[in-house]
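For the sake of transparency, this paper describes our internal protein records without simplification. Such a record has a labelled line for the sequence and another for the backbone structure tokens. Nothing more is needed to write down the fold, since each code stands for a local backbone conformation. For reference, a complete record is included directly beneath this paragraph.
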Amino acid sequence: RQRWRADGRALRKLPVHVGLVVTEEEPSYADMASLVVWCMAVGISYVSVYDHNGIFKRNNSRLMDEILKQQQELLGLDCSKYTVEFTNQDKTGQVLNCQSTLKVLSPEDGKADIVKAAQNFCQLVAQQQRTHTDLDVNMLDNLLSSANGFPDPDLVLKFGPVDSTLGFLPWHIRLTEIISLPSHLNISYEDFFSALHHYAACEQRWGK
């Protein structure tokens, strides 16, 4: 446990928001829970879990039970220091002040955010608060941020052989560092931390 905290502090930069994207057909609740708890333990504030079939989202109570179990097993008496707030699409604006906030997503979520942002902009135009010429990248960013309640992911860990994020937050990850790992099944902490170390060492050019 001490090592995890020290590892997080030792990195040159730590992502604020990590997306865990599973492209495999058989997602593992236990392995995903371990990844979430490791994120919490090293000090990552926001975690998104995604699979392209929406299995985790449909069974989010099972995933949360596994996360609580892993907290007890991996963190022991320290687990009270690593609280996690579970949010769903009905509470996207209600991110509480806690150490880590978890969101479980499926393919419709990213598309729904863009649709809602477009509707909000149309309402502003109809109310003559904006004109159609005001719509640009920054405006859409602001609209999406107010609808989503999460910062954009700094890092996506993609698990599986498919060379695609399969619909994970299509707008939000245009500047995100994406690191591919063979599988989330039986993943070790060493593999996870190696990916964080790779992220910390990379130079992000923001599309330039």
About this structure: Residues 89-98 have pLDDT under 50 and may be disordered. Residues 107-126 form the longest helix (20 residues).
